[in-house]
Structures are given as structure tokens and as C-alpha cells.
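Note to self: the last two entries modelled the partners one at a time, which told us nothing about the interface. This time every component goes in together.
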Amino acid sequence: MGYPHSHELEVGTILSRHFGDPKARDLNTWLTYGGYEGLKKALEMEPAEITTVVKDSGLRGRGGAGFPTGLKWTFMPQEQKGPHYLCCNADESEPGAFKDREILRWVPHLLIEGCLVAARAIHAEHVYIYVRGEYFPFTNILNDAVVQAYEAGYIGENILGSGWNCDLTVHIGAGAYIAGEETGLMSSLSGGRAEPRIKPPFPAQSGVFGSPTTVNNVETLAAVPMIVVNGSDWYRQWGTEKSPGTKLWCCSGNLERPGNYELELGVSLKDVIYEVCGGAPNGKKIKAVIPGGSSTALLTADELDVPSTYEGLQEAGSSLGTASPIVLDEDVNIVRAMRRIADFYAHESCGQCVQCREGTSWVAQILRRIEVGDGRLSDLDTLYDLCEQLTGRTICVLADSVVFPLRSSLDKFRGEYEALIGGRP
Ligand SMILES: Cc1cc2nc3c(=O)[nH]c(=O)nc-3n(C[C@H](O)[C@H](O)[C@H](O)COP(=O)(O)O)c2cc1C
Ligand code: SF4
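The predicted structure of the combined assembly is written out below.
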């Protein structure tokens, strides 16, 4: 195959090198690890130069959609007076995803530095890090690091004598998945409910408090300092042309070695599951993998030999998402697994759109009926119909999120549904 396999990978190169090392949380130790060198370099660069390096590196947003980061930064109006903001999205709530948590927990200064470099690139005077409410212990670690960085002059007025000012506030959310959607996040941050709104206007036009804003994921921002220090070609030594760099993988479910792994993009998904994570425990066969977190279409065990890039997973009919494969072994009841996913989205729907508010609940109810043996064959038609009604008709894509795993499970595991239904029309 033309793409790298896991034995050729460097693991833990950029983001995770200091995971598990509590000393890395301390500023003085962090400086001996090369901390804040990216910020120092960025302070000597023009904002547009920083954006160009990040653009050339090909870094793509790690919040799920894979939007090119440098390109997003160019959308911020350069000449417009008044405040500009950077929001770091640390709401991480997608079932299966647990990578941003590890960055907050082990390398908070890497994230702070990434935020400051990005803020300088987009002319932001204030950074907000919006942290998922349930991440309280990790927020404490982040807060301690922010205090240290303020005291040492890395945040605040006249940063390191450069004349540039930038503040940073850590904001704790109340624990809603929908606050991770960028317009919901900004609404929550501005004092409203975490309810998404239609775009346009896009955040760069009207974001936090109505001002130009960029929203970036924790992992995206944490990759920035080393790209600035080492250059775009250095970052491109990993991954593929369209999906460069390394990625934190959150591997969960029926695996011998579940966990967090930093791997080069482009590695075969099959290698991630079998070589890196050891396959399913107790010699069980793998039935399916939901590759990118719970909102992505599932792949059967025969479909795993695909390059784990944004384009590779898309060609395979799924999505890289947050690179959070959930592995289901031969004993897993697919209908039950889908019902649990549907329950999650039904619970987390903000309720603004009828299709989403009602449709996600109907999906969950129908799946529950099939699961307990009260389903009918016509339920499968109704589920397909609901998939249509939930796709592309709502303010945000939470509604679509339930469709990807559901429709793929209906297409690929119809036999399991029919076995539970037992021929009732
Ligand atoms: C329902 C929903 C939930 C989301 N949750 C998160 C989240 O928890 N963290 C995140 O970074 N992005 C999340 N996103 C994506 C954000 O809207 C946004 O695209 C992302 O934060 C941009 O950062 P990036 O360009 O660095 O990926 C979510 C999107 C949707 C539709
Ligand atoms: S799709 Fe669902 S979560 Fe998104 S805005 Fe509409 S009701 Fe809210």
C-alpha cells in the first residue's frame, strides 16, 4: 500500500511527548522543555507571516470538520477596529473523544502558547478557553498554568516586552454537548443559552459580543507552537499532502489496548485497531468500527484497510472526525449500540429545530422498541425516512450526527435488526 503503516510511525512526537509527566505542568520545567519558544518567535514575526506558516503546514482543524486552520485565520478582518477574539474550543463531548482532555491535563502551557500565537496571528486581544463543565479537575490544572504564565509575563500587557497585549480567560461551560458547536459556544460565552444559530454571519464577521472571532479546537492550537518554531516543511514530514501532521487518536470500545495515541495521519485504520491497539480482547472478532467518534458512519471489519486521512475516510463512506474509533466486537448488539448513540443525541438536542428535537427522540424510541423485541419491519422504513428528514434541514449538524451511524448500521447490519424484529410486518 502507498500509505504508512504503524511500525513506521513516530508516536508522541508533537502533542503527547510529555503526557504522563506531571512536571510538564510547571512553567519552569516547561521552559526547559523548550516551552514558549514558539511565542517568542511569533513576537518577532508579522501576524500575516504566522498565518502563512500555519497555512503552508496544511494543519487542519482537529475539532472534527478538518477545516484548514491558516485559511480560517485569513477570514479575520485585518483593518477592522475594535476587539477581535480567539475562542479555544475545549468543550470536547463527542462520545469516543478524549484527546483535548489529555492536553489540558498534561501540557496546559502548550495550549496557552498555541492560543497566544494564534491570537497574535489574528489580531485578537483576548483569548477565551471554553472548557467542558465536567472537565473540572483539568480546568484547575489549566488555571494554575494560566496564573503562572500571567506572572511570568507570557500573558497580559506588553508580553515579554514586545508591546503586544493579550489577555486570556478560562470559561467553564455547564456541560452541554451543543456548547461545542461554535455558534452555540459563542452564545454561551456571551451570556446566552448554548443555542447554535444559522451562518452567515460567520464567527469572523460576528462572533463573541458581536466582534470578529475565530474558534479553534484545543488540539489544533496545541500543534501551532512547534509549527512556528520548526516551519511548515517540518510538519509536513508526517501525514499526506492533504492531511499533513500527526493526530491524537482516542481508541475505545472492545480493544486489547484502548487509549490515547499520537500517530501520523495516513496510517491504515486497520493498523491503528490491530497493531497499535491489539485488536479485540479475548480473541474476539471485530464486527464494526465507528471511526471518528459517535457521529460518523460505521465501517465493517472488512472495510478497515483505509488510510486514516480526512480524504481517505471520506472515500470509504465515513469520516475521520475527531479520530476517535469506537470498536464493536462480535458480541455487540448493533441495535443496542445505535439506540445508545441515538439516546445521547436526543438528550443533547438543544430543541430549536423540530426535525432534530422530535426526530432524534423518535429514532431512539423506535430503536428501543426493536431492541426489546417489539419492533416491526415497517420500523426500518420509518428509520430510513427519519434519516432523510434529519439530514441537512437543521440549524446545525447535530441532527445529521445521528444519521451517519444509524443509516450505515441499517445498510450494513440489516440482518441484526430483522433478527430482533422476527418477521412482524
Ligand atoms: C454538535 C456539534 C458539537 C461540536 N463539538 C465540538 C467540540 O466539543 N470541540 C470542538 O473543538 N469542536 C466541536 N464542534 C466543531 C466546532 O463547531 C468547530 O468547528 C471547531 O471548534 C473549530 O475548530 P477547528 O477548526 O480547530 O477544528 C462541534 C460541532 C457540532 C456541530
Ligand atoms: S440541529 Fe438540533 S442541536 Fe442543532 S440547532 Fe437544531 S435543534 Fe439545536
